Amino acid sequence: MKNRKKLRLKKFYFHPITIFLFLTLIVILLSAIFSIFEMQGTYNTVNVATNELEPVLVTVENMLNFDGMKYIFSNAMRNFISFTPLGMLLLALIGISVAQATGLIDTLGKKYFSKMRKRNLTFIILFIATISSLINEVGYSFLIPLAAIFYMMNNRNPLLGIVTAFCGVSFGYGVSLFVGSMEVGLIPYTTSSAYLIDETTHVSLTSNLFIIIAFSILLSIIGTIIIERFIAPKIGKYHEKDNFERTEELLLMNEEELEQTRIAEEKCEKRGLRAAYITGIFIVIAFIYMIIPGLPNSGMLLDMKETTYLNQLFGSNSYFQDGFTYMMCLFFLGMGLAYGIGAKTIKNDKDIINGCKSTFADLGELFILIFVASQFISIFRNTNIGTIITCWCANVIQNLSFSGIPLIILVIVMIGIANIFSTTPTLKWSIFAPVVVPALMQANISPAFSQFLLRAGDSITNGVTPLLAGFVIYIGYLNIYNQRKNKPITIRQAIQFLSPYFLFISLSWILLILGWYLIGLPIGPGVYPTL
């Protein structure tokens, strides 16, 4: 009897939706317990206007009292609607569904991805996913669905494509080919914190340019090796159910009919691709014109109230940053329609709408997951537990008198731990910067290099925290392509897929940073790791 019970327990598991519900209840209960025991954290933040330290006391918000329950019930709909990945995903899928319905994605897949070497495809997806953090978290919404499709076209498991895209965006967050929104948010705190030691310090927007370019390439190469060597064999192959039916249909056609059909299809595809490429180039030129200041009717997507171009482009009120997902949607939608008209795969609007239905057919479960997860993330943030843990991690750095390499490793580890509970980079840096920047400057390490350490700590644990909004899309898409519908992929399994990547890429981050520091390579134009 004992053996039978053990076997039953091994088969028992919870759906991710259920897990998020349990986590929400646990957080509510913990907030009440921590509030009773007066759990709190204190940190010093730098006033960006005055460059002076201001003490801040953070206490736990009890979600079981009157005000807490009022917040939960009155904000449930707002939490769901304002959950950033939801809107971004819907916009992304509108563009992708049109491109898929008209046959554009199938043709591109057949032309470029079906015969591509496995390692090359993995590297391309990883690299694009890594540099996508230039503009917030758009990579989660566009690349995860597209990677699944392209991996299937390459006769590979779409689950591996989902894991690859997610690893690139999350574990490479903050490195890119150019400076972006992260610099705009972090530099004010870095500069103000540096003034505590030296008021002549200047941290430019390009102070991390060289190192983020190098790391975007290096992490993609290392990540490709990790995925192909450790994760791909673990996930296994994908078996399409309709392969046999397709083979039967082809056998019923004779060789002459097949050849004529193939020639006609290729002719239509070439005409459609030509129309799609021309449309795509036109849309890209139009978007570029919208972010160039000073030309007639240009700069539509810039915040002209800002003084510097990067602030105009990536500032908190930037139209470009807010509208980039919609721009990408229009890009895919425009190219898809052009291909459909050119290749004659669509005859009217009904063909497009009916073709788009399949993309949204399996999203019901994902929307429920997003609703439940959005409540969990919002309630956890409102409790202030994550902020208090971040305070404690910052205080650890302040209380330990390390220097040089041990101090660098300590900073990365503490930021990584804090990131599990607080995933917003600017919030963490507002707490860490007044501690980390002066401590590292006293150890002869530049503020710009200190700022780069935040990227490292963030990236190392980004992919393994359920509090990351992109994690919800990741686990949702794993279950969309999961062939064992009676046994959903759980949160634990989703993290297990990532565990080899997490371990090796974390070690790679630390070793690359230490190597860069020891060699003394420039991290930006005229900027070095040391002062």
Would you give an account of this structure?
With 531 residues, the protein is mainly alpha-helical. It has a domain of 304 residues. It is 71% helix and 3% strand. It contains 22 helices and two strands. The chain has a two-stranded antiparallel sheet. Helix 5 crosses helix 7, helix 7 runs antiparallel to helix 8 and helix 17 packs antiparallel against helix 18. The protein is globular.
Shape estimate: globular
The average pLDDT is 88
What is the makeup of the main sheet?
2 strands, antiparallel
Radius of gyration: 25 Å
Beginning-to-end CA distance, first to last residue: 69 Å
Which segments are poorly predicted (pLDDT under 50) over 5 or more consecutive residues?
242-251
Largest sheet, order of strands side by side? 1-2
The count of strands amounts to 2
Strand percentage, roughly? Answer: under 5%
Q: Work out the helicity level.
A: over 70%
Structural class: mainly alpha
The number of distinct helices, counting runs of at least 4 residues, comes to 22
**N-to-C series of helices and strands:** HHEEHHHHHHHHHHHHHHHHHHHH
